[in-house]
């Protein structure tokens, strides 16, 4: 089985960058920790699913994780696409607790937890849209194969409530411990081979190529944080302390390690928090570097897109979609 690596979402990375660079005394700091905890939980659930799935999939299967696909002027974040010779399985992975009350017809999900009621978009609707997207792409490729979707819950402290008229939902929502049985059941129900090994690889590569970068979101503003409140400087990623200059580079003044190799992530912090473009002077100010020349010395070692706008070179974020620069 071949698969790509699963990374934290851009929102998750933005929260991580903010925690590194926001004073702990800031009034939004605890709220930020709570939001990051939710993202941590989601990523943990997805990785747990990957671990379970890896033990079931044969060498001919391909597993595509965290696909960001666009169709019908919409963007779809697909947690898992498993391509087998017999079918394609699309999974929406949730790490939630509480009593989940499904309303498939109304397209909503209600959670009861500690006497509190919360409302969410029904994941069954989400995963059906993901299936529609993949089926449309397969039709463009002139490939016919059954596409199955499911919603996997990875937390043991979850229970489901379903209307009597929508009892068929139980075929779509599963606890992670049911996945092994359910997967074998799918194999039994779809015994006919639809895809060759070459076709499987072709679909996988096509979906990889269709993957798009996310657009930048101002998560600072969404949390009521001013950019001026963000701590500037070159940060040691191991202990989250400001590094000091040392012999043309940086050394963490706390753990005393050389941290020159952490330039890339420090630069990414700028793009996560400030936008999808940067001038060398922007990075110099954000990282408290000595000169624009020092910035260029480091950035020239990195594969990053740039273009001249007037007499100024503009660098584009490697993790965000490139928008029209004005």
Description:
The protein is 35% helix and 25% strand. It is α/β, with parallel strands linked by helices. The strands form 4 sheets. The chain has a 6-stranded mixed beta sheet, sandwiched between helices. A hairpin with a 2-residue loop joins strand 11 and strand 12 (249-252). It starts with a strand and ends in a 10-residue tail after the last strand. The mean pLDDT is 91. InterPro entries: NERD (IPR011528). Pfam families: NERD. Residues 41-157 form the NERD domain.
Ordered list of secondary-structure elements with their pairings:
Layout: E1 2-3, H1 10-21, H2 29-54, E2 62-71, E3 74-83, E4 88-94, E5 98-103, E6 108-113, E7 116-121, H3 123-140, E8 147-153, E9 158-162, E10 173-175, H4 179-189, H5 197-210, H6 219-222, E11 243-246, E12 249-252, H7 263-274, E13 277-278, H8 280-287, H9 292-299, E14 306-309, E15 312-316
Parallel strand pairs: 1-2, 4-8, 5-9, 8-10
Antiparallel strand pairs: 2-3, 3-4, 5-6, 6-7, 11-12, 13-15, 14-15
Protein name: NERD domain-containing protein
InterPro entries: NERD (IPR011528)
Domain NERD: 41-157
Features of the shown structure:
35% helix, four-stranded mixed sheet, 2 domains, Arc Repressor Mutant, subunit A, NERD domain-containing protein, 326 residues, six-stranded mixed sheet, alpha/beta, NERD
The gist of it:
The protein has 326 residues and is α/β, with parallel strands linked by helices. The protein is 35% helix and 25% strand. A hairpin with a 2-residue loop joins strand 6 and strand 7 (116-121).
């Amino acid at each position: 089985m071949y698969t790509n690596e699963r990374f934290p979402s851009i929102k998750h990375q933005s929260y991580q960058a903010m925690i590194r660079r926001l004073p702990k005394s800031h009034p939004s700091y605890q709220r930020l920790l709570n939001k990051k905890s939710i993202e941590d939980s989601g990523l943990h659930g997805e990785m747990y699913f990957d671990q379970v799935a890896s033990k079931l999939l044969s060498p001919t299967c391909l597993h595509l994780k965290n696909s960001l696909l666009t169709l019908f002027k919409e963007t779809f974040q697909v947690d898992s696409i498993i391509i087998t010779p017999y079918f394609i399985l699309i999974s929406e992975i949730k790490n939630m607790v509480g009593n989940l009350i499904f309303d498939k017809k109304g397209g909503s999900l209600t959670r009861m937890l500690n006497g509190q009621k919360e409302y969410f978009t029904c994941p069954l609707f989400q995963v059906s849209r993901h299936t529609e997207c993949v089926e449309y792409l397969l039709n463009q490729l002139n490939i016919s194969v059954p596409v199955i979707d499911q919603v996997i819950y990875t937390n043991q402290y979850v229970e489901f409530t379903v209307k009597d008229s929508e009892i068929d939902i139980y075929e779509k929502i599963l606890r992670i411990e049911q996945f092994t049985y359910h997967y074998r059941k799918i194999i039994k129900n779809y015994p006919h081979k639809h895809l060759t090994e070459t076709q499987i690889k072709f679909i996988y590569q096509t979906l990889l190529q269709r993957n798009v970068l996310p657009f930048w979101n101002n998560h600072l503003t969404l949390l009521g944080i001013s950019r001026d409140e963000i701590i500037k400087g070159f940060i040691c990623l191991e202990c989250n302390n400001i590094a000091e200059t040392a012999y043309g580079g940086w050394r963490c003044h706390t753990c005393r390690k050389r941290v020159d190799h952490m330039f890339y992530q420090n630069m990414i912090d700028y793009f996560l928090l400030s936008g999808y473009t940067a001038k060398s002077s922007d990075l110099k100010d954000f990282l408290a570097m000595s000169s624009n020349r020092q910035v260029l010395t480091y950035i020239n070692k990195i594969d990053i897109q740039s273009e001249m706008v007037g007499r100024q070179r503009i660098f584009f974020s490697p993790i965000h979609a490139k928008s029209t620069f004005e």
